[in-house]
Amino acid sequence: MSVMHLFYTQEINGSFHDLDEEESRHCVKVLRLKEGETVYLTDGKGRLYRCSIANANPKQCRIIMDELLPAPTLKSWNVHIGIAPTKNPDRLEWFAEKATEIGIDEITPVFCDHSERKILKTMRFEKVIISAMKQSLRIYKPRFNDPVDFSQLVTRPYECQKFIASCETGQEEELSEKYRKGSDVLILIGPEGDFSAKEIEKAESAGFIPISLGNHRLRTETAGIVACHTINMINK
């Protein structure tokens, strides 16, 4: 069985596309693909083209769109995780990468009372997500939103199930017990020092239900992965 080589561009217009220099080098120098070989191109919005290489130039590889393939059936639920930036940004990048592979739809960094990091450069995360999207052969790119303060996020009108993963009492019900299969969901994951009592109260007032992600205290990025995986397994 041949390997599917997937490339990404924000927009697909016309009958051909020139890969940028980084993608061209990867295609020609790393993957050693040649003229006439088959590759695939997606816009991250559900369109997928079967293509062929017209000019295997490592600085500007041109591919021809041969066929628009049928779009896969969209899943009926949306997974949105609001997560506090970790002190070490590499850990949040790891979360974005793995959550993309698992099947997240939207990520919003949330600055909390106990957050140790209050500045976040988002461009790097877009590259991580695109790379993970291609590696896992996804044709829908997850949305990585600009960071917001906790109060801004919880007061927005979301039409979905809303949960906050808290370690406050240890008596919270499991996410798997509270989530309704097939529902859109927003789950808040706190910083290393957890949410403050004031934040938990504010979230509950806004309709967020406190939940547990298990019996053990998890790192922020691990908690995000567990939440994402739990929702997708329930809906499998």
Write up this protein.
Strands 6, 7, 8, 9, 10, 11, 12 and 13 form an eight-stranded parallel beta sheet that branches. A five-stranded mixed beta sheet has the order 1-3-4-5-2. The mean pLDDT is 92. The protein folds into two domains: 6-68, Beta Barrel (Ribosomal Protein L25, Chain P); 79-234, Alpha/beta knot. With 236 residues, it is of the alpha/beta class. It starts with 5 loop residues before the first strand and ends with a helix. The longest helix is centred in the C-terminal third of the chain and has 15 residues, at 220-234. It has seven helices and 13 strands. 33% of the residues are buried. Helix 2 packs parallel to helix 3 (123-135).
Q: What are its keywords?
A:
236 residues; alpha/beta; Ribosomal Protein L25, Chain P; 7 helices; 13 strands; 30% helix
